[in-house]
């Protein structure tokens, strides 16, 4: 059991780092829409040859796949809009950290789900960190529009998490569901990029092909390691460990993008992860 926990923890930390790396590449891309489109199309192209030999899901699964594809499309558009306007070490923690906090709060208010005292405490800690990220900077730099896009992206994350959970249960096959999810995502984002960029698409695609291929590997790694960790270790602590991507993302933004990352944002990132860990493990 101890060996499984150790292996699961290492896998989930790898998943968190890969997720942060994937987000870093998105921020660095010159044309983020084309970059996101290519990275998803590459994953879809990799999985499609395997999918054709698998049983085709029924409508009870496709309804979740189609709804999930629409939601992930909205998430990508909001993510791109947030990154066009703000720094990664602001957008990423708010976007990544507020999704589980929003999901817990919504379940408590609207679904009348039982929430423990520890979950409420974790929610309060995470919320205070998010308020800290939203607090005006000393130089008066406006953040309202950036935060609205980041929070909207987080809402989409919470939505497609619930949709995919229901879809996987209806499917009974995680890999088949995930494969079709990526195929639909690649089609919708790819079509959007071609329509929006028009004749400029292919020039942008040539420029973004190599980083998008790297992002594809990060994409497969983050989901693959997460699924592996969930298969051998308890879900709650593994899910909490994945939230360390917030800290990894903030550090990568400082080291690679040279974004300002003072003691305030370090403390807020650690506080946010602490709140999410308390929510999911205690």
Automatic annotation (TrEMBL):
Q: Which GO terms describe its cellular component?
A: membrane
Q: How does it sit in the membrane?
A: Multi-pass membrane protein
Membrane-traversing stretches: 6-26, 33-52, 64-83, 90-111, 117-135, 147-168, 174-195, 216-233, 262-279
Q: What Pfam families does the annotation carry?
A: EamA
Q: Which InterPro entries match?
A: AA-Vitamin_Transporters, EamA_dom, EmrE-like
Q: Where is the EamA domain?
A: 7-131, 147-279
| Keyword tags | Membrane, Transmembrane, Transmembrane helix
Q: Which domain of life is it from?
A: Bacteria
| Compartments where found | Membrane
On whether Cell membrane is a keyword of this UniProt record, the answer is: no
Q: What is its main location?
A: membrane
Question: Is Membrane a UniProt keyword of this protein?
Answer: yes
Protein family per UniProt: Belongs to the EamA transporter family.
- Which protein are we looking at? EamA-like transporter family protein
């Amino acid at each position: 059991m101890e060996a499984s926990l150790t292996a699961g923890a290492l896998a989930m930390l790898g998943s968190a780092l890969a997720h942060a790396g994937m987000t870093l590449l998105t921020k660095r891309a010159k044309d983020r829409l084309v970059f996101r489109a290519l990275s998803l199309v590459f994953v879809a192209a990799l999985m499609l040859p395997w999918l054709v030999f698998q049983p085709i899901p029924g409508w009870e699964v496709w309804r979740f796949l189609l709804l999930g594809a629409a939601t992930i499309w909205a998430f990508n558009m909001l993510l791109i809009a947030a990154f066009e306007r703000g720094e990664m070490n602001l957008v990423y923690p708010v976007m990544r950290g507020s999704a589980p906090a929003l999901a817990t709060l919504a379940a408590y208010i609207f679904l009348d789900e039982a929430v423990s005292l520890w979950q409420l405490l974790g929610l309060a800690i995470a919320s205070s960190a998010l308020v800290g990220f939203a607090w005006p900077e000393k130089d008066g730099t406006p953040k309202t529009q950036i935060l609205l896009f980041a929070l909207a992206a987080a809402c989409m994350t919470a939505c497609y998490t619930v949709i995919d959970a229901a879809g996987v249960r209806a499917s009974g096959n995680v890999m088949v569901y995930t494969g079709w999810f990526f195929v639909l995502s690649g089609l919708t984002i790819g079509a959007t990029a071609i329509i929006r960029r028009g004749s400029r698409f292919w020039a942008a695609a040539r420029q973004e092909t190599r980083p998008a291929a790297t992002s594809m590997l990060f994409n497969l790694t983050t989901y693959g390691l997460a699924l592996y960790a969930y298969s051998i270790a308890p879900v709650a602590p593994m899910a909490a460990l994945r939230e360390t991507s917030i800290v990894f993302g903030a550090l990568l933004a400082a080291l690679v993008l040279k974004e300002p990352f003072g003691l305030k944002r370090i403390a807020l990132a650690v506080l946010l992860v602490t709140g999410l860990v308390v929510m999911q493990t205690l």
